[in-house]
Amino acid sequence: MRLRLHNYWRSSASYRVRIALGLKGLAWEYVAVDILKGGSAGAGGQHDLGYRAKNPMAQVPTLEVIEDDGQVHLLTQSLPIIEYLDERFAAPPLLPPGVAGREARAQVRALAEMVNSGIQPLQNLSTTLQVQALGGDDKVWVKGFIARGLAALEAAVAGSAGRYCVGDEPTIADCCLVPQIYSAHRFGVDPAGFPRLAAIAAACDQLPAFAAAHPDRQPDAVLPR
Ligand SMILES: N[C@@H](CCC(=O)N[C@@H](CS)C(=O)NCC(=O)O)C(=O)O
């Protein structure tokens, strides 16, 4: 079995999956999709017909799972991709296991969803381009939604955090939090205003899987930013 991840260095949804692949200790192949200008018509590569056949939303990431017999599974959406990896490669679990972990699992999924549907879509490229097209200030737009979302996350982890978002083992919630903190820096929101989140992100960054997944360490990174 081989894994091929179509992704982009600075994409936070891609960054989530890279972290999960690292936590599972999996080898994978990097396929860069330049969402800014990598496409055949001057637009981002996510709009190319070939890529859209894999990902009809024209977004990264997409994971190709190539079985030994040649069968290919195409997976889209970062959270279902991570849950697939968690089901197929059990250790270490990225959701608290068993009956005892039921409520903690709900909390992990809630935190992940706050990032996935409550913050990231509002900072996404297609959204900011549309805000610009309507004459709005996309930077003000993004900063407001990130600050509001992080304030909610800061409150939400108060009852569940240990070293990480939920307890003392990294979970899917941390796979979402760290890229969102990266985006906060990128869009000018200071995460220091959210001390619980900042402490969790600092703990995550000490783990090799999180460090290896950082945008600046990807082969398509354009540095200095
Ligand atoms: N819910 C999707 C979000 C994917 C997404 O929004 N990807 C962004 C990069 S983080 C993208 O491809 N944007 C391209 C565009 O907006 O044209 C997931 O989790 O995979």
Please work out how many helical segments DSSP would assign: 10
Helix content: 40-55%
CATH level-1 class of the largest domain? Mainly Alpha
Strand content: 5-15%
Shape: globular
List all distinct small molecules, including ions and cofactors, that are bound in this structure: glutathione
Biggest pleated-sheet summary: 4 strands, mixed
Helix/strand order, N-terminal first: EHEHEEHHHHHHHH
Detail the poorly predicted runs: none
Q: Indicate the structural class.
A: alpha+beta
What does the average pLDDT come to?
96
- For the record, the count of structural domains works out to 2
Strand order of the largest sheet: 2-1-3-4
As a whole number of angstroms, the C-alpha radius of gyration is 17 Å
Kindly identify the CATH topology of the largest domain.
Glutathione S-transferase Yfyf (Class Pi), Chain A, domain 2
For the terminal residues, how far apart are their CA atoms? Answer: 35 Å
Q: What CATH architecture label of the largest domain applies?
A: Up-down Bundle
- Count of DSSP E strands? 4
